Amino acid sequence: MKIAIVGSGYVGLVTGVCLADFGHEVTCIDKDQSKILELERGVVPIYEPGLSELVNANVAAGRLTFTTDLPSAVGQAEVVFIAVGTPSRRGDGHADLSYVYAVAREVAEAVTGFTVVVTKSTVPVGTGDEVAHIIGTVNPEADVAVVSNPEFLREGAAIEDFKRPDRIVVGIDDERAREVMAEVYRPLYLNQAPLLFTDRRTSELIKYAANAFLAMKITFINEVADLCEAAGANVQEVARGIGLDNRIGAEFLHAGPGYGGSCFPKDTTALVKIGQDFGSPMRLVETTVSINDQRKRAMSRKVIAACGGEVRGKTIGVLGLTFKPNTDDMREAPSLDIIRGLQDRGAKIVAFDPQGMKAARLLVEDVDFADSAYDVAQGADALVLVTEWNEFRSLDLERLKSLMKTPVFVDLRNVYRPHEMARHGFSYVSIGRFDEDIGERVSNAAE
Ligand code: UDX
After folding, report:
1. Class in CATH terms, 2-198
2. What is the 88 CA–ligand 1 centroid distance (Å)?
3. Any residues with Cβ below 6 Å from ligand 1, and which?
4. Considering only CA atoms, which of 295, 278, 299, 10 is closest in space to residue 159?
5. 177 C-alpha vs ligand 1 centroid, how far in Å?
6. Mutation choice for ligand 1 from 121, 203, 218, 387, CB with most ligand atoms inside 8 A
7. Annotated catalytic residue 263
């Protein structure tokens, strides 16, 4: 099939390259000429494991091309994916749909023959109706079916998630699109991924409901972690104990510094707004948003408490800056709130992240960037592990301790074991774990 993808950002690029890998003929479109030139040379602008190899292989096989020429690519395509950004609108938290609608207008003028136009971007309920309306107004001759096909892939595991999804959701209001979308995803039947057809509005809502539910799940275990600290229990065992119940499930129960990234914060806020718009408030999600915001800020207070209540003039080393490992994405990363909170209290920050420092330099001020975890430890009064990159999982603890001024270690991802850290002589604070060997509790509530 001939497929055009409008928007060669994260979702567009992964979608395009994976569909090309399925054997489709794919053209990825972007307005940014320099990005397209780079991609043509095989240079992928984002860090995502396996992506550049897959881009190069499919370009070499002649199935994947890049262009800035939307009319030509869309004119030839049977299926057009809209995969441009839907950032939070400044001020009101609504999803900003101006890019989606601008693309809809351009697509309307370029389509030839029956074309399925798919919104891949995360868009509020009713956006598909508006896209269809725009296309019909701009070009009444256009023969299109507008489809909703939300993307559930995770950064850092994007290709794997695309090729082995738990499900594919396709929202259609025009029966002709069913067969076309089934053909697009036919190679995935081999992986037995269920293809769930719904109406368009339902499909649009599924994406928000899924992300909000996961954000709630994380926020729930984070609150349980606080309770564990106060009550003298262990959140990891609570998570295991409840996760073994199939109705709850074991995933997304890792307590930490709060969720970040390009999706959960934006989509939860947008769902709150959607609920308000329809007069059907999403109260659990509203509360989730505010708890998570508070939590990110509370993490700097946890570090200050671990440092004996004072960080003025102290050097705090930060291990990991990105919102999660295996990405260079710094959007809404908890590290940003933690660093600002510590700087506000007079701490000096040294930080290292395997992939995130380029983006971080644009977002934080007065931070010294180091070359490794051990560089960060040099002379530090405390270390804070914020992102659980693999290379932080097996640090040489003796070496680390010998480099530090005082061996205080705050582990916001529960990577290490309390008794192990105590054995190495660290004053160790983690999330939601009360360790009797150490006899120490640090409660967020008490700070
Ligand atoms: C998420 C959804 O998982 C994906 O389906 C959707 O398409 C986009 O949003 P992503 O933003 O890439 O994907 O990250 P994810 O791996 O889901 O993690 C989101 C945040 O939650 C991270 O900050 C992570 O550290 C945090 N998290 C996740 C926890 O704190 N605990 C957990 O148990 C899981």
Report:
1. alpha beta
2. 18
3. 151-155, 211, 214, 218, 252-254, 256, 259-264, 323-324
4. 10
5. 31
6. 218
7. yes
Residue spans of the domains in the chain: they are 2-198, 234-429
Q: pLDDT (tens digit, 9 = 90+) per residue, 212-252?
A: 999 999 999 999 999 999 999 999 999 999 999 999 999 99
Q: What would you measure as the largest C-alpha separation in the chain, in angstroms?
A: 75
Mutate to test the pocket of ligand 1, among 155, 263, 296, 386 (most ligand atoms within 8 A of CB): 263
Length of the chain: 447
Task: Sheet with 315-319: list strands edge to edge.
Answer: 367-369, 348-352, 315-319, 382-385, 408-411, 427-429
User: Distance, CA 192 to ligand 1 centroid (Å)?
Assistant: 24
For ligand 1, atom 27, the nearest C-alpha belongs to 259
pLDDT tens per residue, range 274-299: 999 999 999 999 999 999 999 999 99
Cβ–Cβ < 8 Å for 6, 12: yes
CATH of 234-429, one of 1.10.287.3510, 3.40.50.720, 3.40.50.2300, 3.30.980.10: 3.40.50.720
User: For residues 21 and 335, what is the distance between their CA atoms, to the nearest angstrom?
Assistant: 36
Q: What is the ipTM of this complex?
A: 0.94
